[in-house]
């Protein structure tokens, strides 16, 4: 069987748009059936379509990706997958955004050396950016919490009888379980609402 061209597309979430990658691959001679796409994080290579692609490709086939971070974002795993693809399976790889990462060129020692250096640098950059994104998300959440922003599902309105039930519960006329039952909510929800009600009264 003659060598075939393949394309791989990855976006991190189902909400992200893959059009930019599709347009880049669309200008190449790649059969539509040979384009595989995952909507999944690039933290590892445990992705269903990537695994299918890996099983499909044979020696001397050619794989196109838009950029190295579309292949993955884990430095060590990108290098390992690159080795598996190029050395074990004998596949050529072309990274469209980085012409130096084209294994069809420079098959001599110097070409391979330069390609390996570029790959290691870009793999490190991809993983470093992933770590930076995670850090920025954590800092953003911490800052929002400090401003009083609450995360999670917004709570609905309390029942009309809640204030009266709350007062009876606080006066120890009824138990928390009885109060929760009268308000039509779980005990944990009643306690949470009671604390919020106390804070509201204190302000």
Class based on secondary structure composition and strand pairing: alpha/beta
Task: Determine the number of helices (DSSP H or I, runs of at least 4 residues).
Answer: 8
Q: What CATH architecture of the largest domain do you see?
A: 3-Layer(aba) Sandwich
Query: Largest sheet, described in full?
Result: 4 strands, parallel
Secondary structure elements and pairings:
Elements: E1 5-11, H1 19-26, E2 35-39, H2 48-56, E3 62-65, H3 68-71, H4 75-88, E4 92-95, H5 109-146, H6 162-170, H7 176-183, H8 187-202
Parallel strand pairs: 1-2, 1-3, 3-4
Main traits of this protein?
203 residues; alpha/beta; Rossmann fold; 2 domains; four-stranded parallel sheet; 8 helices; 4 strands
Q: What do you see in this structure?
A:
By secondary structure, the chain is of the alpha/beta class. The protein has two domains: 5-130, 3-Layer(aba) Sandwich (Rossmann fold); 162-202. The protein has eight helices and four strands, in the order βαβαβααβαααα. The chain has helices at residues 19-26, 48-56, 68-71, 75-88, 109-146, 162-170, 176-183, 187-202; strands spanning 5-11, 35-39, 62-65, 92-95. The protein has a four-stranded parallel beta sheet, sandwiched between helices. Helix 1 links the parallel strand 1 and strand 2. Helix 4 (75-88) packs antiparallel against helix 5, helix 6 runs antiparallel to helix 7 and helix 7 (176-183) packs across helix 8 (187-202). It is elongated and about 85 Å long. It starts with a strand and ends with a helix. The mean pLDDT is 81.
